[in-house]
């Protein structure tokens, strides 16, 4: 299958701490690493490793970090035909501070990614894809937002409409708030975690939030609920899909949600029912968290075969 992905590519600076620093304090990490990341990059790499043809639309600076950010994108065979170079803005970086009990703080700079030039979108590449996947960070501001909306329009108005997957992120929802709902409600598949669901809808419970999205016209909503697994919702059914414990210890959750999104799209477009697709995604996200870095743990078809075939 062919996927068109719009989202950030970044260099992630990861710091594992006993506790998050307080103002004025100095804290030494138990581990510090630098890894390629970003939702767009991680989704693209995961799909390519699962055997798909992928075009990634992102923008990087004219700096040394650009090649590092694109390292695994290139190695996995993702097409760079829609990668743009920016002479005026730096490649995006994210600093992630994480504690053993799951607390996390981030410093994120959209930088070159937010300048993705909509004039360079080739609509035919979207129209001939089997799916369009957009990270909601791409819908928050700047030319990247215009690029994303233009791509959604191309997908929906193609001779054969292209399914649209939109994956939210905490930073995107925190920045755009409830106004983001109008941009994402029309997606064929809307994917988000529990915090993002409540913040997007301005509600206090999952059931109320899903009812609100349904009233607004949502078709399919997949909610990531951490150790509980995920919830799949349609106007006709709601189902909790249990988590799939990975082989190995969970050491870093960075990128697990993006890996979940890619695996879900892979399984859903392979023809699986939503709940089975979500189970495969649960497994993929958990496996991704057993290595340091968003793209370090390669997810293969073999990893997902058992959970995809199990009824």
Describe the structure.
- There is one protein chain.
- Helix 8 (194-201) packs across helix 9 and helix 10 packs antiparallel against helix 11.
- The model has no long low-confidence stretch (mean pLDDT 91).
- The two termini are 24 Å apart.
- A hairpin with a 5-residue loop joins strand 6 (93-98) and strand 7.
- The protein is an alpha/beta fold and 311 residues long.
- The strands form two sheets. It has a nine-stranded mixed sheet with strand order 5-4-1-8-9-10-11-12-13, sandwiched between helices.
- The radius of gyration is 18 Å and the shape is globular.
- It is 35% helix and 23% strand.
- It has helices at 39-49, 64-69, 71-75, 123-127, 142-156, 170-176, 181-184, 194-201, 206-216, 256-269, 274-288, 301-309; strands at residues 2-6, 10-16, 31-37, 53-61, 83-86, 93-98, 104-109, 131-135, 164-167, 189-193, 221-224, 230-234, 237-241.
SSE map:
Layout: E1 2-6, E2 10-16, E3 31-37, H1 39-49, E4 53-61, H2 64-69, H3 71-75, E5 83-86, E6 93-98, E7 104-109, H4 123-127, E8 131-135, H5 142-156, E9 164-167, H6 170-176, H7 181-184, E10 189-193, H8 194-201, H9 206-216, E11 221-224, E12 230-234, E13 237-241, H10 256-269, H11 274-288, H12 301-309
Parallel strand pairs: 1-4, 1-8, 2-6, 4-5, 8-9, 9-10, 10-11
Antiparallel strand pairs: 2-3, 6-7, 11-12, 12-13
Helix pairs in contact: 1-10, 8-9, 10-11, 11-12
